[in-house]
Protein backbone atom coordinates (compact mmCIF):
# COMPACT_ATOMS: atom_id res chain seq x y z
CA UNK A 1 0.00 0.00 0.00
CA UNK A 2 1.12 3.60 -0.54
CA UNK A 3 1.37 5.66 2.62
CA UNK A 4 3.47 8.37 4.21
CA UNK A 5 4.51 9.59 7.64
CA UNK A 6 7.26 10.91 9.82
CA UNK A 7 8.75 11.35 13.28
CA UNK A 8 9.41 14.43 15.40
CA UNK A 9 11.46 14.30 18.56
CA UNK A 10 14.76 15.11 20.22
CA UNK A 11 17.96 14.27 18.32
CA UNK A 12 18.82 10.60 18.43
CA UNK A 13 17.86 7.27 16.99
CA UNK A 14 14.34 6.82 15.70
CA UNK A 15 12.60 4.42 13.32
CA UNK A 16 11.62 4.60 9.68
CA UNK A 17 9.88 2.04 7.46
CA UNK A 18 12.05 -0.30 5.45
CA UNK A 19 11.92 0.77 1.81
CA UNK A 20 10.75 4.31 2.55
CA UNK A 21 12.06 7.31 0.65
CA UNK A 22 13.28 9.86 3.16
CA UNK A 23 12.27 13.39 2.20
CA UNK A 24 13.49 15.30 5.25
CA UNK A 25 16.06 13.98 7.70
CA UNK A 26 15.53 16.32 10.66
CA UNK A 27 11.83 16.34 11.54
CA UNK A 28 11.81 13.12 9.54
CA UNK A 29 9.27 12.80 6.76
CA UNK A 30 9.09 9.82 4.42
CA UNK A 31 6.92 8.29 1.75
CA UNK A 32 6.30 4.61 1.08
CA UNK A 33 4.94 4.63 -2.44
CA UNK A 34 2.62 7.61 -1.88
CA UNK A 35 2.67 10.51 -4.31
CA UNK A 36 4.28 13.66 -2.93
CA UNK A 37 5.31 17.10 -4.13
CA UNK A 38 7.54 19.30 -2.02
CA UNK A 39 9.17 22.72 -2.00
CA UNK A 40 11.60 24.47 0.31
CA UNK A 41 13.18 27.84 0.98
CA UNK A 42 16.79 28.80 1.60
CA UNK A 43 16.08 29.36 5.30
CA UNK A 44 14.90 25.79 5.81
CA UNK A 45 11.11 26.19 5.55
CA UNK A 46 9.64 23.15 3.80
CA UNK A 47 6.17 22.24 2.54
CA UNK A 48 4.97 18.87 1.23
CA UNK A 49 1.66 17.88 -0.34
CA UNK A 50 0.87 14.17 -0.08
CA UNK A 51 -1.79 12.51 -2.18
CA UNK A 52 -3.42 13.57 -5.46
CA UNK A 53 -3.60 17.38 -5.59
CA UNK A 54 -4.04 19.79 -8.51
CA UNK A 55 -1.74 22.48 -7.12
CA UNK A 56 0.76 23.83 -9.66
CA UNK A 57 4.44 24.20 -8.82
CA UNK A 58 4.34 28.01 -8.83
CA UNK A 59 1.59 28.06 -6.22
CA UNK A 60 3.38 25.50 -4.08
CA UNK A 61 6.54 27.59 -4.19
CA UNK A 62 4.60 30.73 -3.25
CA UNK A 63 3.04 28.98 -0.27
CA UNK A 64 6.33 27.80 1.16
CA UNK A 65 8.03 31.15 0.54
CA UNK A 66 5.56 33.57 2.05
CA UNK A 67 2.25 32.04 3.09
CA UNK A 68 1.05 32.45 6.64
CA UNK A 69 -0.96 29.84 8.51
CA UNK A 70 -4.24 31.38 7.32
CA UNK A 71 -3.16 30.88 3.71
CA UNK A 72 -2.21 27.28 4.42
CA UNK A 73 -5.57 26.71 6.13
CA UNK A 74 -7.26 27.83 2.92
CA UNK A 75 -4.89 25.72 0.80
CA UNK A 76 -6.19 22.53 2.45
CA UNK A 77 -9.32 22.73 0.25
CA UNK A 78 -8.11 25.02 -2.53
CA UNK A 79 -7.61 22.36 -5.23
CA UNK A 80 -9.27 19.17 -6.44
CA UNK A 81 -7.87 16.01 -4.87
CA UNK A 82 -7.59 14.16 -1.58
CA UNK A 83 -4.42 15.42 0.01
CA UNK A 84 -2.64 16.44 3.22
CA UNK A 85 -0.34 19.41 3.76
CA UNK A 86 2.82 19.10 5.88
CA UNK A 87 4.86 22.17 6.92
CA UNK A 88 8.26 22.18 8.60
CA UNK A 89 8.98 25.76 9.69
CA UNK A 90 12.72 25.10 9.84
CA UNK A 91 12.79 25.88 13.56
CA UNK A 92 11.73 22.55 15.04
CA UNK A 93 7.96 22.75 14.54
CA UNK A 94 5.95 20.49 12.22
CA UNK A 95 2.29 21.07 11.30
CA UNK A 96 -0.08 18.67 9.55
CA UNK A 97 -3.40 19.66 8.00
CA UNK A 98 -5.95 16.82 7.99
CA UNK A 99 -8.39 17.33 5.13
CA UNK A 100 -11.91 18.26 6.32
CA UNK A 101 -13.62 15.48 4.37
CA UNK A 102 -11.49 12.75 5.97
CA UNK A 103 -10.50 11.18 2.65
CA UNK A 104 -6.79 11.50 3.48
CA UNK A 105 -6.83 10.54 7.19
CA UNK A 106 -3.85 11.24 9.43
CA UNK A 107 -2.90 9.43 12.64
CA UNK A 108 -0.45 10.04 15.46
CA UNK A 109 1.20 7.92 18.16
CA UNK A 110 3.87 8.24 20.84
CA UNK A 111 6.61 5.64 20.36
CA UNK A 112 9.38 5.60 22.97
CA UNK A 113 9.03 9.33 23.57
CA UNK A 114 8.98 10.24 19.89
CA UNK A 115 5.91 11.71 18.23
CA UNK A 116 5.18 9.72 15.09
CA UNK A 117 2.50 10.33 12.48
CA UNK A 118 1.31 8.56 9.37
CA UNK A 119 -1.50 8.23 6.87
CA UNK A 120 -1.96 4.61 7.99
CA UNK A 121 -3.09 3.74 11.51
CA UNK A 122 -2.08 0.12 10.92
CA UNK A 123 1.49 1.18 10.14
CA UNK A 124 1.78 3.02 13.46
CA UNK A 125 0.08 0.14 15.27
CA UNK A 126 2.77 -2.21 13.98
CA UNK A 127 5.22 -0.29 16.21
CA UNK A 128 2.99 -0.68 19.27
CA UNK A 129 2.21 -4.38 19.16
CA UNK A 130 -0.76 -4.22 16.80
CA UNK A 131 -3.52 -4.38 19.42
CA UNK A 132 -7.06 -3.41 18.37
CA UNK A 133 -8.78 -0.71 20.41
CA UNK A 134 -11.76 -2.51 21.93
CA UNK A 135 -13.60 0.67 22.93
CA UNK A 136 -13.31 1.97 19.35
CA UNK A 137 -14.69 -1.33 18.10
CA UNK A 138 -17.65 -1.05 20.46
CA UNK A 139 -18.42 2.41 19.13
CA UNK A 140 -18.03 1.13 15.56
CA UNK A 141 -20.54 -1.64 16.19
CA UNK A 142 -23.03 0.75 17.76
CA UNK A 143 -22.72 3.38 15.02
CA UNK A 144 -20.02 3.12 12.32
CA UNK A 145 -20.23 6.86 11.61
CA UNK A 146 -19.81 7.89 15.27
CA UNK A 147 -16.86 10.13 16.14
CA UNK A 148 -14.50 8.62 18.73
CA UNK A 149 -12.07 11.37 19.77
CA UNK A 150 -8.49 10.45 20.60
CA UNK A 151 -8.76 6.93 19.22
CA UNK A 152 -8.61 4.77 16.12
CA UNK A 153 -9.15 1.09 15.42
CA UNK A 154 -5.73 0.47 17.04
CA UNK A 155 -4.75 0.95 20.68
CA UNK A 156 -2.35 3.85 21.18
CA UNK A 157 -3.03 5.40 17.77
CA UNK A 158 -5.12 8.57 17.45
CA UNK A 159 -6.77 10.04 14.40
CA UNK A 160 -6.23 13.76 13.81
CA UNK A 161 -9.78 15.16 13.58
CA UNK A 162 -10.68 16.03 9.98
CA UNK A 163 -10.57 19.76 9.39
CA UNK A 164 -7.97 20.22 12.13
CA UNK A 165 -4.24 20.88 12.15
CA UNK A 166 -1.82 19.01 14.41
CA UNK A 167 1.32 20.82 15.46
CA UNK A 168 4.25 19.27 17.29
CA UNK A 169 7.75 20.38 18.21
CA UNK A 170 11.08 18.68 18.75
CA UNK A 171 10.67 19.49 22.46
CA UNK A 172 7.59 17.26 22.63
CA UNK A 173 4.81 19.86 22.75
CA UNK A 174 1.77 19.23 20.56
CA UNK A 175 -1.62 20.80 19.91
CA UNK A 176 -4.70 20.26 17.74
CA UNK A 177 -6.66 23.21 16.38
CA UNK A 178 -9.64 23.43 13.97
CA UNK A 179 -8.89 25.37 10.81
CA UNK A 180 -11.80 24.71 8.41
CA UNK A 181 -15.09 26.58 8.21
CA UNK A 182 -17.93 25.88 5.83
CA UNK A 183 -18.86 28.28 3.06
CA UNK A 184 -22.19 29.44 1.64
CA UNK A 185 -23.12 29.53 -2.06
CA UNK A 186 -26.31 30.06 -3.97
CA UNK A 187 -27.60 26.97 -5.67
CA UNK A 188 -26.36 28.09 -9.10
CA UNK A 189 -22.92 28.91 -7.69
CA UNK A 190 -22.73 25.47 -6.07
CA UNK A 191 -23.73 23.72 -9.32
CA UNK A 192 -21.12 25.64 -11.33
CA UNK A 193 -18.35 24.87 -8.85
CA UNK A 194 -19.48 21.26 -8.52
CA UNK A 195 -19.14 20.85 -12.27
CA UNK A 196 -15.58 22.19 -12.06
CA UNK A 197 -14.73 20.07 -9.00
CA UNK A 198 -15.83 16.79 -10.58
CA UNK A 199 -14.01 17.52 -13.83
CA UNK A 200 -10.86 18.61 -11.98
CA UNK A 201 -10.87 15.62 -9.65
CA UNK A 202 -11.15 13.18 -12.56
CA UNK A 203 -8.59 14.99 -14.70
CA UNK A 204 -6.09 14.94 -11.86
CA UNK A 205 -6.30 11.14 -11.59
CA UNK A 206 -6.56 9.92 -15.17
CA UNK A 207 -4.55 12.22 -17.42
CA UNK A 208 -1.83 10.26 -19.17
CA UNK A 209 -2.57 7.00 -17.33
CA UNK A 210 -4.29 3.70 -18.21
CA UNK A 211 -7.57 4.34 -16.39
CA UNK A 212 -10.83 2.58 -15.67
CA UNK A 213 -14.05 3.50 -13.94
CA UNK A 214 -17.07 1.78 -12.50
CA UNK A 215 -19.92 2.17 -14.99
CA UNK A 216 -22.97 0.84 -13.19
CA UNK A 217 -25.43 2.88 -15.23
CA UNK A 218 -26.16 5.10 -12.23
CA UNK A 219 -25.61 8.83 -12.21
CA UNK A 220 -22.54 8.84 -9.92
CA UNK A 221 -20.32 6.42 -11.81
CA UNK A 222 -21.60 7.49 -15.23
CA UNK A 223 -20.56 11.08 -14.50
CA UNK A 224 -17.02 10.05 -13.56
CA UNK A 225 -16.70 7.75 -16.56
CA UNK A 226 -17.89 10.45 -18.94
CA UNK A 227 -15.43 13.00 -17.56
CA UNK A 228 -12.62 10.44 -17.81
CA UNK A 229 -13.63 9.68 -21.39
CA UNK A 230 -13.13 13.36 -22.27
CA UNK A 231 -9.49 13.00 -21.18
CA UNK A 232 -8.71 9.86 -23.19
CA UNK A 233 -9.47 6.17 -23.35
CA UNK A 234 -11.09 4.75 -20.22
CA UNK A 235 -12.27 1.21 -19.46
CA UNK A 236 -15.83 1.20 -18.11
CA UNK A 237 -16.69 -1.80 -15.91
CA UNK A 238 -20.32 -2.93 -15.65
CA UNK A 239 -21.43 -5.77 -13.38
CA UNK A 240 -24.35 -7.97 -14.35
CA UNK A 241 -25.76 -11.33 -13.25
CA UNK A 242 -24.42 -14.18 -15.38
CA UNK A 243 -26.72 -14.69 -18.36
CA UNK A 244 -28.54 -11.34 -17.91
CA UNK A 245 -26.67 -8.45 -19.52
CA UNK A 246 -29.66 -6.45 -20.78
CA UNK A 247 -32.28 -4.30 -19.13
CA UNK A 248 -32.15 -1.70 -16.36
CA UNK A 249 -28.67 -0.67 -15.26
CA UNK A 250 -26.91 -2.54 -18.06
CA UNK A 251 -28.86 -0.66 -20.72
CA UNK A 252 -28.12 2.70 -19.12
CA UNK A 253 -24.42 1.77 -18.96
CA UNK A 254 -24.53 0.93 -22.69
CA UNK A 255 -26.14 4.28 -23.40
CA UNK A 256 -23.29 6.10 -21.67
CA UNK A 257 -20.63 3.98 -23.38
CA UNK A 258 -22.28 4.56 -26.76
CA UNK A 259 -22.10 8.33 -26.29
CA UNK A 260 -18.30 8.32 -25.84
CA UNK A 261 -16.15 6.43 -28.37
CA UNK A 262 -13.21 6.60 -25.94
CA UNK A 263 -15.00 4.31 -23.43
CA UNK A 264 -13.90 0.67 -23.74
CA UNK A 265 -16.95 -1.03 -22.27
CA UNK A 266 -16.31 -4.26 -20.37
CA UNK A 267 -19.02 -6.40 -18.81
CA UNK A 268 -18.22 -8.48 -15.75
CA UNK A 269 -20.67 -11.35 -15.23
CA UNK A 270 -21.32 -12.22 -11.60
CA UNK A 271 -21.76 -15.88 -10.78
CA UNK A 272 -21.92 -18.04 -7.69
CA UNK A 273 -18.19 -17.51 -7.09
CA UNK A 274 -18.82 -13.78 -6.60
CA UNK A 275 -21.64 -14.02 -4.08
CA UNK A 276 -21.37 -12.09 -0.79
CA UNK A 277 -19.68 -14.05 2.02
CA UNK A 278 -17.59 -15.99 -0.53
CA UNK A 279 -13.79 -16.38 -0.28
CA UNK A 280 -13.63 -14.38 2.95
CA UNK A 281 -10.19 -15.81 3.78
CA UNK A 282 -8.76 -13.75 0.91
CA UNK A 283 -9.21 -10.54 2.93
CA UNK A 284 -6.08 -8.47 3.61
CA UNK A 285 -5.61 -6.30 6.69
CA UNK A 286 -6.55 -2.62 6.45
CA UNK A 287 -6.52 0.34 8.83
CA UNK A 288 -10.01 -0.60 10.02
CA UNK A 289 -12.78 -2.92 8.82
CA UNK A 290 -13.42 -2.17 5.15
CA UNK A 291 -17.03 -1.66 3.96
CA UNK A 292 -16.58 -4.16 1.11
CA UNK A 293 -15.37 -6.98 3.37
CA UNK A 294 -18.46 -9.12 2.82
CA UNK A 295 -18.30 -8.71 -0.98
CA UNK A 296 -14.56 -9.28 -1.19
CA UNK A 297 -14.86 -12.05 -3.82
CA UNK A 298 -16.53 -9.68 -6.28
CA UNK A 299 -14.13 -6.83 -5.54
CA UNK A 300 -10.99 -8.93 -5.91
CA UNK A 301 -12.28 -10.45 -9.14
CA UNK A 302 -12.71 -6.94 -10.47
CA UNK A 303 -9.13 -6.08 -9.52
CA UNK A 304 -7.88 -9.18 -11.36
CA UNK A 305 -9.87 -8.07 -14.40
CA UNK A 306 -8.40 -4.57 -14.21
CA UNK A 307 -4.90 -6.04 -13.98
CA UNK A 308 -5.53 -8.02 -17.14
CA UNK A 309 -6.71 -4.85 -18.90
CA UNK A 310 -3.46 -3.07 -18.01
CA UNK A 311 -5.23 -0.53 -15.79
CA UNK A 312 -3.20 1.40 -13.22
CA UNK A 313 -5.84 3.78 -11.82
CA UNK A 314 -9.53 3.07 -11.15
CA UNK A 315 -12.37 5.47 -10.28
CA UNK A 316 -15.40 4.61 -8.17
CA UNK A 317 -18.55 6.56 -7.39
CA UNK A 318 -18.41 5.84 -3.65
CA UNK A 319 -19.69 8.81 -1.70
CA UNK A 320 -22.13 9.96 -4.36
CA UNK A 321 -25.22 8.71 -2.55
CA UNK A 322 -24.13 10.45 0.65
CA UNK A 323 -23.64 13.81 -1.03
CA UNK A 324 -26.46 13.87 -3.54
CA UNK A 325 -29.26 11.79 -2.04
CA UNK A 326 -29.59 12.90 1.60
CA UNK A 327 -32.53 12.04 3.86
CA UNK A 328 -34.90 14.96 4.67
CA UNK A 329 -32.90 16.24 7.64
CA UNK A 330 -33.27 19.76 6.21
CA UNK A 331 -36.84 19.74 7.54
CA UNK A 332 -35.40 20.46 10.99
CA UNK A 333 -33.59 23.51 9.62
CA UNK A 334 -36.78 24.74 8.00
CA UNK A 335 -38.58 24.37 11.32
CA UNK A 336 -35.84 26.21 13.19
CA UNK A 337 -35.86 29.10 10.72
CA UNK A 338 -39.65 29.43 10.76
CA UNK A 339 -40.16 28.53 7.10
CA UNK A 340 -43.41 26.76 7.82
CA UNK A 341 -44.87 26.73 4.30
CA UNK A 342 -41.74 25.16 2.78
CA UNK A 343 -41.59 22.74 5.72
CA UNK A 344 -45.17 21.61 5.12
CA UNK A 345 -44.63 21.30 1.35
CA UNK A 346 -41.46 19.20 1.67
CA UNK A 347 -42.94 17.01 4.41
CA UNK A 348 -45.97 16.30 2.22
CA UNK A 349 -43.73 15.54 -0.77
CA UNK A 350 -41.70 13.13 1.36
CA UNK A 351 -44.91 11.47 2.61
CA UNK A 352 -46.26 10.97 -0.92
CA UNK A 353 -42.94 9.48 -2.03
CA UNK A 354 -43.02 6.93 0.80
CA UNK A 355 -46.81 6.52 0.89
CA UNK A 356 -46.88 7.58 4.51
CA UNK A 357 -48.30 10.31 6.71
CA UNK A 358 -46.34 13.59 6.85
CA UNK A 359 -47.01 14.04 10.57
CA UNK A 360 -44.12 11.89 11.89
CA UNK A 361 -41.67 13.88 9.76
CA UNK A 362 -43.15 17.18 10.91
CA UNK A 363 -43.01 16.10 14.55
CA UNK A 364 -39.40 15.00 14.18
CA UNK A 365 -38.48 18.30 12.51
CA UNK A 366 -39.66 20.20 15.57
CA UNK A 367 -38.61 17.86 18.38
CA UNK A 368 -36.24 15.03 17.32
CA UNK A 369 -34.24 15.99 14.19
CA UNK A 370 -32.05 12.90 14.46
CA UNK A 371 -35.01 10.72 13.49
CA UNK A 372 -35.23 12.38 10.08
CA UNK A 373 -32.19 10.42 8.93
CA UNK A 374 -34.03 7.18 9.71
CA UNK A 375 -35.56 5.72 12.84
CA UNK A 376 -32.86 4.13 15.01
CA UNK A 377 -33.23 0.37 14.91
CA UNK A 378 -32.61 -1.85 17.94
CA UNK A 379 -29.44 -3.95 17.87
CA UNK A 380 -30.26 -6.92 20.11
CA UNK A 381 -27.15 -8.76 18.91
CA UNK A 382 -24.92 -6.28 20.79
CA UNK A 383 -24.15 -6.76 24.47
CA UNK A 384 -24.79 -4.21 27.23
CA UNK A 385 -20.98 -3.98 27.53
CA UNK A 386 -20.80 -2.74 23.97
CA UNK A 387 -23.48 -0.14 24.59
CA UNK A 388 -21.78 1.11 27.76
CA UNK A 389 -18.32 1.28 26.19
CA UNK A 390 -19.62 3.05 23.09
CA UNK A 391 -21.44 5.67 25.13
CA UNK A 392 -18.31 6.28 27.21
CA UNK A 393 -15.99 7.02 24.26
CA UNK A 394 -18.15 8.61 21.57
CA UNK A 395 -18.73 12.35 21.45
CA UNK A 396 -21.16 14.59 19.62
CA UNK A 397 -19.91 15.86 16.29
CA UNK A 398 -18.82 19.42 16.96
CA UNK A 399 -18.79 20.59 13.37
CA UNK A 400 -18.28 24.06 11.91
CA UNK A 401 -21.42 23.94 9.76
CA UNK A 402 -24.74 25.73 9.80
CA UNK A 403 -27.56 23.35 10.70
CA UNK A 404 -28.87 19.83 11.26
CA UNK A 405 -28.68 18.82 7.59
CA UNK A 406 -25.11 20.04 7.23
CA UNK A 407 -23.95 18.30 10.39
CA UNK A 408 -25.52 15.04 9.26
CA UNK A 409 -24.05 15.30 5.76
CA UNK A 410 -20.53 16.15 6.94
CA UNK A 411 -20.46 13.37 9.53
CA UNK A 412 -21.58 10.83 6.91
CA UNK A 413 -19.16 12.17 4.30
CA UNK A 414 -16.24 11.92 6.72
CA UNK A 415 -17.09 8.30 7.47
CA UNK A 416 -17.25 7.48 3.76
CA UNK A 417 -13.98 9.30 3.14
CA UNK A 418 -12.12 7.54 5.93
CA UNK A 419 -13.36 4.07 5.04
CA UNK A 420 -12.72 4.68 1.34
CA UNK A 421 -9.06 4.79 2.34
CA UNK A 422 -9.38 1.15 3.44
CA UNK A 423 -10.74 0.24 0.01
CA UNK A 424 -7.69 1.80 -1.62
CA UNK A 425 -5.52 -0.41 0.59
CA UNK A 426 -7.34 -3.47 -0.76
CA UNK A 427 -6.81 -2.29 -4.33
CA UNK A 428 -3.13 -1.64 -3.66
CA UNK A 429 -2.65 -5.36 -3.01
CA UNK A 430 -3.27 -5.78 -6.76
CA UNK A 431 -1.16 -2.83 -7.86
CA UNK A 432 -4.26 -0.72 -8.58
CA UNK A 433 -4.64 2.89 -7.47
CA UNK A 434 -8.30 3.32 -6.58
CA UNK A 435 -9.74 6.82 -6.25
CA UNK A 436 -13.05 8.19 -4.99
CA UNK A 437 -13.44 11.75 -6.34
CA UNK A 438 -16.74 12.25 -4.50
CA UNK A 439 -14.82 12.17 -1.22
CA UNK A 440 -12.49 15.04 -2.22
CA UNK A 441 -12.51 17.82 0.37
CA UNK A 442 -13.18 20.62 -2.12
CA UNK A 443 -16.11 18.71 -3.65
CA UNK A 444 -17.65 17.94 -0.25
CA UNK A 445 -17.16 21.60 0.70
CA UNK A 446 -19.02 22.66 -2.44
CA UNK A 447 -22.03 20.45 -1.74
CA UNK A 448 -22.18 21.63 1.86
CA UNK A 449 -22.11 25.24 0.65
CA UNK A 450 -25.37 24.76 -1.26
CA UNK A 451 -28.58 25.51 0.68
CA UNK A 452 -29.62 22.26 2.37
CA UNK A 453 -33.18 22.50 1.04
CA UNK A 454 -31.82 22.60 -2.51
CA UNK A 455 -29.80 19.40 -2.03
CA UNK A 456 -32.97 17.38 -1.37
CA UNK A 457 -35.88 16.63 -3.64
CA UNK A 458 -38.80 14.21 -3.63
CA UNK A 459 -39.35 14.84 -7.34
CA UNK A 460 -35.87 14.61 -8.86
CA UNK A 461 -33.10 12.06 -8.39
CA UNK A 462 -29.88 13.68 -7.11
CA UNK A 463 -30.82 17.17 -8.34
CA UNK A 464 -27.47 18.88 -7.66
CA UNK A 465 -25.46 16.26 -9.52
CA UNK A 466 -28.02 16.01 -12.33
CA UNK A 467 -27.74 19.74 -12.97
CA UNK A 468 -23.93 19.65 -12.75
CA UNK A 469 -23.65 16.98 -15.48
CA UNK A 470 -26.47 18.20 -17.69
CA UNK A 471 -25.17 18.29 -21.24
CA UNK A 472 -22.40 15.82 -20.43
CA UNK A 473 -24.47 12.63 -20.17
CA UNK A 474 -27.33 11.41 -22.36
CA UNK A 475 -30.57 12.92 -21.09
CA UNK A 476 -32.19 9.55 -20.34
CA UNK A 477 -29.36 8.77 -17.90
CA UNK A 478 -29.60 12.18 -16.22
CA UNK A 479 -33.37 11.84 -15.81
CA UNK A 480 -33.41 8.25 -14.52
CA UNK A 481 -34.36 7.39 -10.96
CA UNK A 482 -32.65 5.09 -8.47
CA UNK A 483 -30.59 2.25 -9.86
CA UNK A 484 -31.00 -1.43 -9.07
CA UNK A 485 -30.35 -3.13 -5.73
CA UNK A 486 -28.81 -6.53 -5.17
CA UNK A 487 -29.85 -7.52 -1.64
CA UNK A 488 -31.14 -10.84 -2.97
CA UNK A 489 -27.49 -11.77 -3.60
CA UNK A 490 -26.84 -11.52 0.15
CA UNK A 491 -29.48 -14.14 0.84
CA UNK A 492 -28.00 -16.45 -1.80
CA UNK A 493 -24.50 -15.83 -0.45
CA UNK A 494 -25.57 -16.71 3.08
CA UNK A 495 -27.05 -20.00 1.95
CA UNK A 496 -23.99 -20.86 -0.13
CA UNK A 497 -21.61 -20.10 2.76
CA UNK A 498 -23.79 -21.06 5.73
CA UNK A 499 -21.17 -22.76 7.90
CA UNK A 500 -18.57 -20.04 7.37
CA UNK A 501 -20.98 -17.22 8.19
CA UNK A 502 -22.39 -18.89 11.28
CA UNK A 503 -18.83 -19.39 12.48
CA UNK A 504 -18.37 -15.60 12.28
CA UNK A 505 -21.26 -15.14 14.69
CA UNK A 506 -19.37 -16.96 17.42
CA UNK A 507 -15.83 -15.65 17.31
CA UNK A 508 -13.56 -12.90 18.59
CA UNK A 509 -16.36 -10.38 19.14
CA UNK A 510 -18.18 -12.92 21.24
CA UNK A 511 -15.03 -13.71 23.22
CA UNK A 512 -14.62 -10.00 23.93
CA UNK A 513 -18.19 -9.78 25.17
CA UNK A 514 -19.19 -7.33 22.43
CA UNK A 515 -21.86 -9.42 20.70
CA UNK A 516 -24.44 -11.99 21.74
CA UNK A 517 -23.61 -14.93 19.44
CA UNK A 518 -26.93 -16.76 19.86
CA UNK A 519 -28.93 -13.70 18.83
CA UNK A 520 -26.66 -13.02 15.86
CA UNK A 521 -26.85 -16.64 14.67
CA UNK A 522 -30.64 -16.57 14.93
CA UNK A 523 -30.81 -13.43 12.81
CA UNK A 524 -28.51 -14.90 10.15
CA UNK A 525 -30.54 -18.11 9.99
CA UNK A 526 -33.67 -16.05 9.37
CA UNK A 527 -31.88 -14.29 6.51
CA UNK A 528 -30.93 -17.66 5.03
CA UNK A 529 -34.66 -18.42 4.87
CA UNK A 530 -35.23 -15.24 2.87
CA UNK A 531 -36.36 -12.94 5.67
CA UNK A 532 -35.17 -9.40 5.10
CA UNK A 533 -32.76 -8.17 7.78
CA UNK A 534 -31.00 -4.82 8.34
CA UNK A 535 -27.95 -5.56 6.21
CA UNK A 536 -26.52 -2.10 6.83
CA UNK A 537 -26.31 -2.90 10.54
CA UNK A 538 -25.22 -6.54 10.31
CA UNK A 539 -22.44 -6.21 7.73
CA UNK A 540 -20.26 -3.96 9.98
CA UNK A 541 -20.49 -6.64 12.69
CA UNK A 542 -19.37 -9.45 10.40
CA UNK A 543 -16.74 -7.20 8.81
CA UNK A 544 -15.35 -6.33 12.25
CA UNK A 545 -15.15 -10.01 13.16
CA UNK A 546 -13.18 -10.83 10.02
CA UNK A 547 -10.90 -7.83 10.59
CA UNK A 548 -10.23 -8.94 14.17
CA UNK A 549 -9.29 -12.42 13.01
CA UNK A 550 -6.45 -11.08 10.85
CA UNK A 551 -5.50 -8.11 13.06
CA UNK A 552 -2.70 -10.20 14.60
CA UNK A 553 -0.75 -9.80 11.36
CA UNK A 554 -0.37 -6.03 11.89
CA UNK A 555 3.18 -6.30 13.18
CA UNK A 556 4.17 -8.11 9.97
CA UNK A 557 2.56 -5.63 7.58
CA UNK A 558 5.25 -2.94 7.96
CA UNK A 559 8.92 -3.53 8.76
CA UNK A 560 10.91 -0.81 10.50
CA UNK A 561 14.57 0.02 10.85
CA UNK A 562 16.57 2.23 13.20
CA UNK A 563 17.77 5.54 11.76
CA UNK A 564 20.22 8.06 13.13
Tell me what you see in this structure.
41% of the residues lie in helices and 16% in strands. It has 564 residues and is an alpha+beta fold. Among the domains are: 3-180, Glutamine Phosphoribosylpyrophosphate, subunit 1, domain 1, CATH 3.60.20; 187-319 and 422-440 and 468-478, HUPs (Rossmann fold). The strands form four sheets. It has a six-stranded antiparallel sheet. A six-stranded antiparallel sheet has the order 5-6-7-8-12-13, covered by helices on one side. Strand 12 (164-169) and strand 13 form a beta hairpin. Helix 5 runs antiparallel to helix 15 (441-449). The longest helix has 25 residues, at 404-428.
What is the topological layout?
Blueprint: E1 3-8, E2 14-17, E3 21-24, E4 28-32, E5 36-40, E6 46-50, H1 57-66, H2 69-75, E7 84-88, E8 93-97, E9 107-111, E10 114-118, H3 121-125, H4 134-142, E11 158-159, E12 164-169, E13 174-178, H5 187-206, E14 211-214, H6 219-229, E15 234-241, H7 249-259, E16 263-270, H8 296-308, E17 313-315, H9 320-324, H10 330-336, H11 340-354, H12 359-367, H13 384-393, H14 404-428, E18 433-435, H15 441-449, H16 452-455, H17 463-468, H18 475-478, H19 487-496, H20 498-505, H21 508-511, H22 517-528, H23 535-550, H24 554-557, E19 560-563
Parallel strand pairs: 14-15, 14-17, 15-16, 17-18
Antiparallel strand pairs: 1-4, 1-10, 2-19, 3-4, 5-6, 6-7, 7-8, 8-12, 9-10, 9-11, 12-13
Helix pairs in contact: 4-13, 5-6, 5-15, 10-11, 10-12, 20-22
Amino acid sequence: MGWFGGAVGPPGATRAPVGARLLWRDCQVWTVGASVRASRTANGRRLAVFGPCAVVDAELNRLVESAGLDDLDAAATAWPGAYALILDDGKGTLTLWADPAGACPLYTAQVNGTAMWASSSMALASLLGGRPDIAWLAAHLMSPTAWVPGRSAWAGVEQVPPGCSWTTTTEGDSAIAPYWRSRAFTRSEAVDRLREDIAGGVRLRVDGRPASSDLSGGLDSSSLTAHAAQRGTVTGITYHPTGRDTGGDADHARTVAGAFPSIRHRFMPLGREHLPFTDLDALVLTDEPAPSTITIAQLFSQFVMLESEGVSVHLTGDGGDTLFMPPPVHLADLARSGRVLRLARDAQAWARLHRASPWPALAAAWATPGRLSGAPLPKPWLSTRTVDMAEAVTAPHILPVRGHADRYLLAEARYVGRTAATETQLAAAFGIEMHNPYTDARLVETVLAAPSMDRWSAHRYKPLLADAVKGLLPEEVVQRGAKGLFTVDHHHGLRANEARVLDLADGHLGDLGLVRPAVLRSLLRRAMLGVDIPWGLIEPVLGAELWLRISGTATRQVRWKETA
